[in-house]
Q: What sequence folds into this?
């Protein structure tokens, strides 16, 4: 048997597809089928598969098309909402990253420069110390106590950002 | 890859909730048109999935999933023939994904029958002489033979559905055909001897 197609293959397939075999088969094709193993196999398989398909299709019990349509609608809707949410999430993540970077830079910069900007605050006669809890001011505003306060404020701000992110993420689910 | 469209909130959100805007909004299939297409295509897709997988329950799931996915995408070509071919392609991919997916339970805990394709297809096989032959063929051979001989697809169409190279379809199909024909002949001889 060779892999090269027999020139009669298409005729055999059409014969099987139209149901003309064996009664309406031309005599020359019947003779060819006796001599060509490839075509005989092809005809046998065509008939077997078509008969099997006919029987299998009878067993199919597909659900109502409305159910499928409804499921697709739900999926489309959630995909559309997801596509809207994606840019928001990206912006939020970017904002948090920038915020963290700024906070870290500020802390690093201040630790190197030694909190000189507090002198300016004193000169302006602002009572900045009254805003800080007494437990922190005990060590003095220019001491290491302020370095404790700064991360606390940063942490609070970060927590607020996370809360905003969580809340804004839940809003579309309510619809 | 599909190019991502810029999203405009003001225009998209109201349409989403009014069921107007969607990724498939441009496709011509409406609910009634889909119902007709579904009635014509669902049985043949189910038969394909059931015979290639050998599991009617799996075929039920995959058929529904194929149609849902079909409705959620924009068709590459217009026309019902192209749509049916695309549907078969989705089904074939889902079937392949199912085979690739790791089994959830321990392999030792599962009954032996689950691994053979004759699990739930007893009813079909008892009526068909092709059933035992299909069980002995590899999934890819079953897939190719079904698409070529049961659905009547050309080599080019089979290549589009299966994702195989068009040039290799002829050889693969030739080998699968030879294997199936010899099994079928052996079976019919065996059946004749039993009688």
A:
């Amino acid at each position: 048997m060779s892999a090269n197609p027999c020139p009669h293959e298409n005729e055999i397939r059409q014969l099987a597809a139209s149901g003309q075999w064996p009664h309406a088969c031309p005599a020359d094709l019947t003779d060819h089928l006796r001599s060509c193993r490839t075509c005989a196999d092809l005809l046998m398989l065509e008939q077997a598969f078509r008969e099997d398909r006919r029987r299998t299709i009878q067993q199919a019990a597909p659900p109502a098309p409305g159910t499928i349509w409804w499921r697709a609608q739900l999926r489309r809707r959630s995909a559309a909402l997801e596509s809207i949410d994606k840019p928001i999430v990206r912006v939020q993540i970017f904002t948090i990253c920038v915020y963290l970077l700024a906070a870290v830079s500020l802390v690093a910069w201040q630790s190197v420069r030694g909190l000189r900007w507090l002198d300016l605050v004193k000169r302006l006669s602002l009572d900045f110390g009254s805003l800080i809890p007494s437990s922190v001011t005990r060590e003095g505003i220019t001491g290491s106590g302020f370095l404790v306060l700064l991360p606390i404020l940063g942490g609070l701000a970060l927590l607020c950002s996370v809360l905003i992110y969580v809340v804004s993420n839940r809003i579309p689910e309510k619809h | 890859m599909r190019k991502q469209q810029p999203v405009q909130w003001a225009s998209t959100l109201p349409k989403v909730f009014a069921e107007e805007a969607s990724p498939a909004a441009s496709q011509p299939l409406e609910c009634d048109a889909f119902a007709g297409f579904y009635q014509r295509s669902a049985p043949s897709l189910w038969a394909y999935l059931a015979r290639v997988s050998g599991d009617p329950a799996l075929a039920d799931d995959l058929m529904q999933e194929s149609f849902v996915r079909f409705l959620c995408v924009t068709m590459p070509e217009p026309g019902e023939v192209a749509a049916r071919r695309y549907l078969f392609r989705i089904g074939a991919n889902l079937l392949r994904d199912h085979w690739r997916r790791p089994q959830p339970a321990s392999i030792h805990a599962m009954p032996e029958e689950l691994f053979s394709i004759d699990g739930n297809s007893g009813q079909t096989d008892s009526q068909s002489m092709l059933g035992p032959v299909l069980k002995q063929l590899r999934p890819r051979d079953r897939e190719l033979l079904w698409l070529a001989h049961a659905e009547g697809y050309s080599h080019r169409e089979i290549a589009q559905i299966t994702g195989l190279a068009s040039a290799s379809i002829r050889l693969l199909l030739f080998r699968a055909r030879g294997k199936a024909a010899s099994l079928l002949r052996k079976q019919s001889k065996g059946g004749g001897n039993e009688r």
About this structure: Chain B touches chain A through 53 residues (CB under 8 Å).
